[in-house]
Specification:
Blueprint: E1 8-13, H1 20-33, E2 41-43, H2 49-61, E3 66-70, H3 77-92, E4 100-103, H4 111-118, E5 125-126, E6 147-152, H5 155-159, H6 162-175, E7 185-190, E8 201-205, E9 209-212, H7 216-228
Parallel strand pairs: 1-2, 1-3, 3-4, 6-7
Antiparallel strand pairs: 4-5, 6-8, 8-9
């Protein structure tokens, strides 16, 4: 792989078509690799279909080897495994799975970091030998819980500092002995829940209350007053409309 030269490199992620992030990312990318590179930017905010389409076009045209850079700030190891498995399935139709590669920059929001990664083949993953998902594993049962907490990890809530707050929420529940147990809470991160201007957004079921959790004090209050005491915190509840 050390001498591998890609025929095409695709930059795929959410919020790459419009908005401040898209403007800055594309400006930096054009400065680094030329304005024509912007044709290789694929916005997947509404779903991965545009990426699958572009990959199929590249495979049909024989633009190989092909590198897909996942520049989603929320990318994780499971997401990369999923992306590789989906690309493997598509590439098999063209018998080209060994010519398709995936990578994710350490700084996903930086076009410079993404461009540097192109010349670091040791960090690229092929789509030929993708680890299979085990048929049975430890995560086979619904965890015990009383409350279901949906914590938004959409792009605008993340920009408002959601991720460290959700980590603190989990830590506080664990310290209180109320994480995934009878009388406790199960936390699930979601994509955009839509009342973005009131975020970071968190909703709790049963009851379906939507909360704005802006800082560490709000996290502590929510855990103590709602998830432990079973009460309400009216000043944290989001307004309708």
């Amino acid at each position: 792989m050390s001498d591998l030269q890609y025929a095409r490199v695709l930059f795929a992620g959410p919020d790459l078509e419009q908005g401040s992030f898209a403007e800055l990312f594309c400006r930096e990318l054009a400065d680094l690799r030329g304005a024509e590179t912007l044709d290789d930017v694929v916005d997947v905010t509404a779903g991965p279909a545009p990426l699958w389409q572009r990959v199929r076009e590249c495979l049909a045209l024989g633009e190989l080897p092909l590198l897909v850079l996942d520049v989603d700030p929320q990318t994780s190891s499971p997401q990369l495994d999923w992306l590789r498995s989906e690309l493997h399935r598509i590439a098999q139709e063209y018998e080209a799975a060994d010519q398709l590669f995936v990578a994710s920059p350490r700084e996903a929001s930086s076009a410079a970091s993404a461009c540097e990664l192109i010349d670091q083949p040791q960090r690229h993953l092929d789509c030929a030998d993708v680890p299979s998902l085990p048929e049975t594993h430890a995560w086979s049962h619904i965890p015990r819980h009383t409350y279901r907490v949906l914590a938004c990890a959409g792009p605008r809530c993340v920009r408002r500092g959601a991720l460290p707050l959700w980590k603190l929420l989990r830590a506080n529940l664990k310290a209180a002995g109320r994480l995934e147990c009878d009388g406790g809470a199960h936390i699930t991160r979601t994509q955009c829940q839509f009342p973005c201007d009131q975020g970071p957004t968190l909703s709790v079921y049963p009851g379906g209350r939507w909360y704005r959790i802006a800082n560490e004090e709000d996290v502590v209050c929510l855990v103590n007053e709602v998830l432990i005491a079973g009460g309400e915190v009216p000043n944290l509840i989001q307004k309708e409309g």
